[in-house]
Amino acid sequence: MAARVQQEDFDAAAEVAALTAGRTDIGAIVTFTGRVRGGEGGVAAMTLEHYPGMTEAELSRIEAEAHSRWPLQASLIVHRVGELKPGDNIVLVATASAHRQAAFEAAGFLMDYLKTRAPFWKKETDASGNAVWVEARQSDDSAARRWS
Amino acid sequence: MAARVQQEDFDAAAEVAALTAGRTDIGAIVTFTGRVRGGEGGVAAMTLEHYPGMTEAELSRIEAEAHSRWPLQASLIVHRVGELKPGDNIVLVATASAHRQAAFEAAGFLMDYLKTRAPFWKKETDASGNAVWVEARQSDDSAARRWS
Amino acid sequence: MSDIRKRRVKLLYFAWVREKVGSGSEEVELPPQVETVSDLIDWLRTRGPQFDDAFARPQVIRTALDKVHVKPAVRVAGAREIAFFPPVTGG
Amino acid sequence: MSDIRKRRVKLLYFAWVREKVGSGSEEVELPPQVETVSDLIDWLRTRGPQFDDAFARPQVIRTALDKVHVKPAVRVAGAREIAFFPPVTGG
Predict the structure, then answer these.
(1) Nearest CA to D66 among A54, B115, B64?
(2) For a surface tag, which of B52, B100, D33, D55 has the fewest beta carbons within 10 Å of its beta carbon?
(3) DSSP secondary structure letters along C2-58
């Protein structure tokens, strides 16, 4: 169980390898990687702000909640902050369990809760240089509510 | 869209990198990795048999079905056959989409359908050397039915 | 002549069906009374104790005609390859 | 003396709340009438046009007391750090 916030990129493969190294009791690993989308309907650049201290605490609370709901053998959340470009990684969530359903559900739960509870804010810049704060989406709230 | 059956191990990171290389329209990538479980309640060794020709055809049909149901930008299924040991990789499923819900649901769908439709059979050997064919689980059938 | 050629099929057996039958594949001439997958299983069971044992519980036998899953009531006419196997357990 | 010390809190502002307020953090002495988060927002709005603008729509302001999400009706007594921000948009 680990949650990190960092400016630098992450290596999803190395993170998962470290999470599961030497273990033979893991039957299922699910990873979610979120990336900055560019192109049509995408952005030219993105800045991610967060609340240092609360972010880590909130991510740990979300992770602990996932472990209380599903039999997980390992989990990881890595979230980037700062300046990001299209194609850049934003977030990595990984869950490991004996069985696939627990790993899938816990990964979905972590992302839904992270989206509605972890104190991150995205400011997007479009091709013309206009910067706007991303508005929270109703669909994220309803996604999170399905777990309560 | 690609489905492969192979004896050799796979490198999940390299597979995902190849799947998404140079693309900035992908916002969400979900991977599922299935592994041989050892230890208590686990196995000492496993042999995976399949139906060459039908396996590839069935995996491609399952993948096409996923693409017809969700807006996926890329997907991949790699399944190993032959002799495997505890901790070894068995299967990799990866889905890429603009949004996380499509990527999550499609990956879950691919695994559920693969488990009930792709012609693979596991023979497990326990610590005492007894080899038995794994019986299909009712729970896999009900997991697959939720998509129909 | 063409009728007779159409009745020649390749049979494939996998996993414990293969082990019980004692072979992974064979070519057979289907007798006239075999119309459906179910008929084929009934006929196979008459071919010896190892077949009778392998197909003793038809409800746990799955069938593919030319590499496509089919139900027991499906007609086998025209198929070139018919495979029998237990419920699948991959993933 | 100890009562007065308890009423000193650190306020933090994030994202567009920070931009509108014009500052990321400040230390303030809470006036006696401020009992809840909601009261605090009402008082902050009296502190100048930039505060009035930042907190003009309280329904889109989220609050954390000592790094824990709270509702507007929660009492602020005892908190050392109170943060205001828009609905979160990470992930």
Answers:
(1) A54
(2) D33
(3) HHHHHTEEEEEE-HHHHHHHT-SEEEEEPPTT--BHHHHHHHHHTT-HHHHHHTS-G
Q: Which residues of A touch D65 (CB under 8 A)?
A: none
Do the Cβ atoms of D91 and D21 come closer than 8 Å?
no
Structure pTM?
A: 0.93
- For residue B2, what pLDDT is reported? 93
User: For residue B16, how many C-alpha atoms fall within 13 Å in the half-sphere facing its CB?
Assistant: 22
DSSP D66: T
Residue with tokens 């824990």: D68
Average pLDDT (B52-59) is 98
Q: Three-class SS string for A88-142?
A: CEEEEEEEEECCHHHHHHHHHHHHHHHHHHCCEEEEEECCCCCEEECCCCHHHHH
Residue-level pLDDT at C4: 52
Is the pLDDT confidence value at D1 over 50? no
How far A129 CA lies from chain B's nearest CA (Å)? 18
For chain C, which ranges sit under pLDDT 70? 1-6
Q: Give the tens place of pLDDT for each residue, B102-124.
A: 999 999 999 999 999 999 999 99
CB pair distance less than 8 Å for C67 and B123: no
Residue C43: which region, alpha, beta or left (left: phi > 0; alpha: psi -120 to 50)? alpha
| pLDDT for D40 beyond 90 | yes
At C6 the pLDDT is 60
